[in-house]
Structures are given as structure tokens and as C-alpha cells.
Amino acid sequence: GRIMAIMGPSGSGKSTLLDTLAGRLSSNVVMTGNILLNGKKKGLQYGGVAYVTQENVLLGTLTVRETVAYSAHLRLPPTLTKEEVDGIVEGTLMEMGLQECADTIVGTWHLRGISGGEAKRLSIALEILTRPRLLFLDEPTT
């Protein structure tokens, strides 16, 4: 795989560019031009692209493991067995370095939980569950 960074000052359009590339723009926005993937014009089919937003959108009352498992049961193919889904959940927790906090609640503004870095890694974990071909990360280090 490859990693590419888009850098620029605040307000320069980095997030808008990512939204455009990921097909997340509002339907009333007019866009012209072509998007090439590996030099070829391709449509970004559902499931082939994942997007992690700047803000972590997580349920604060669930544990890290429950959060990943919940997402896995909703997003992975229904043909997978419970054991297969559980294996993917545990593998993803390990891959993202979340084993130590797996049984800690995510937390809210009034309920202490995982750290900001762990929350960001959890947000990424939720998107890589489906093994997308293309992963967009908007401000992954904030």
C-alpha cells in the first residue's frame, strides 16, 4: 500500500478535497473533472472506500471491544459466523494497538474513558474492519 499526505494551512480546502475524492459532497454541489485511481478512471463503489472524519463519532457508554464488535456485526457480510466476526474484531483491536484498553469504556465529557489517541485509533479501526481499498483520514493526528 501507499500513504499520501495532503498538507496546507487551515482553511485551504484539504477536508473539501478529501470529501470530493471520497464522494461525500452534498448532492447540490457541482463537480467537474475526473478522479483517477492508479491511473484509471474508476467509480468508487460502496465498501471500497472508507473515511475517518476529524471528529471521533463514538458511543461513549460502550467499551472499545463492544464498539468494534457492534460495527462489525452491522458492516461485515451476514454469511460470516460469529467466530469469524469475533476473530476479525480481535485482530482489528490488535492491529490498531487497542488490546490494552479493549475493556475500557470509550467515555463522554462527564465519564472518563479512553485517551484521545486511543479514540482516534478506534475510529480508524471501525473503518478498516471492512478492508477498504482506499482509506481517507481527515486530520488523523489531531
From TrEMBL:
GO terms for molecular function: ATP binding; ATP hydrolysis activity. InterPro entries: ABC_transporter-like_ATP-bd, P-loop_NTPase, Plant_ABCG. Its EC number is 3.6.1.3. Pfam families: ABC_tran. Residues 1-142 form the ABC transporter domain. Keywords: Hydrolase, Transport. The keyword Hydrolase applies. Belongs to the ABC transporter superfamily. ABCG family. Eye pigment precursor importer (TC 3.A.1.204) subfamily. This is Adenosinetriphosphatase. It comes from Opuntia streptacantha.
